[in-house]
Design brief:
The chain is about 40% helix and about 25% strand. By secondary structure, it is an alpha/beta fold. It has a 7-stranded mixed β-sheet. It starts with a strand and ends in a 5-residue tail after the last helix.
Length: about 200
């Protein structure tokens, strides 16, 4: 039987952490994301790291439309080769519902059925620690694939999760920086602000 690796992406973690890296704020609407380039970079990295072909990317997110239905961006992500949308829903208060549960159940199912040999988990959520342990019990390796912060450390990954995983590696910073762009304007490009900032302090 051929061996494979897989990627489980907590989209909330990946996009918020990437936004923090490039814009200083975790707001996903503050960045423009080239999802195809970002996912392609992840695939290339894990295949090189594991020496195994990728079976699939499972992309976990809250449905962007009522009832947990995908929005336009999610529809496009789901059409990418070897990408499977796994959607939860948003509560009325805007909180994710069902995403962590789906990830945990899928981890356990993949492990029990030996679907793959290595899963790269793009998440920092401590709530997944028990699911990681269950997967390992069945012989699966689980490696955390973390967004690097500006100091080159894993961004927002729970210590518990790091301890239980079989390893922690960083997503290639160049992939994040090229695929995720801040929508905030450079103050130098705003008429008036550039001149004002250049003149600040004169005569103090």
């Amino acid at each position: 039987m051929r061996s494979y690796c897989a990627i489980y992406v907590d989209a909330g973690y990946l996009l918020a952490s990437s936004a923090t890296r490039v814009s200083g704020t975790s707001l996903r609407r503050g960045v423009a994301v080239d999802h195809a380039a970002l996912i392609g970079g992840l695939i290339e990295q894990v295949e090189a790291d594991s020496g195994l072909p990728l079976l699939r990317v499972n992309w976990y997110d809250s449905g962007g439309r009522p009832g947990g239905m995908p929005d336009v961006h999610q529809d496009n992500i789901g059409l990418l080769p070897r990408v499977k949308l796994r959607l939860g829903r948003l509560s009325q208060s805007g909180e994710q519902k069902g995403v962590d549960l789906r990830m945990g159940l899928d981890l356990a199912t993949y492990a029990r059925n030996r679907v793959v040999d290595v899963i790269y988990l793009v998440s920092g959520d401590d709530d997944l620690t028990e699911a990681v342990e269950e997967a390992q019990f069945h012989g699966l390796q689980v490696v955390i694939l973390a967004v690097p912060d500006q100091r080159g450390r894993p961004h927002a990954v729970a210590k518990n999760l790091q301890r239980e995983a079989d390893g922690v590696i960083l997503i290639d910073a160049a992939v994040v920086d090229s695929a995720v762009k801040s929508l905030a304007l450079d103050p130098a490009l705003v008429p008036g602000l550039g001149d004002a900032s250049e003149g600040a302090g004169v005569g103090d």
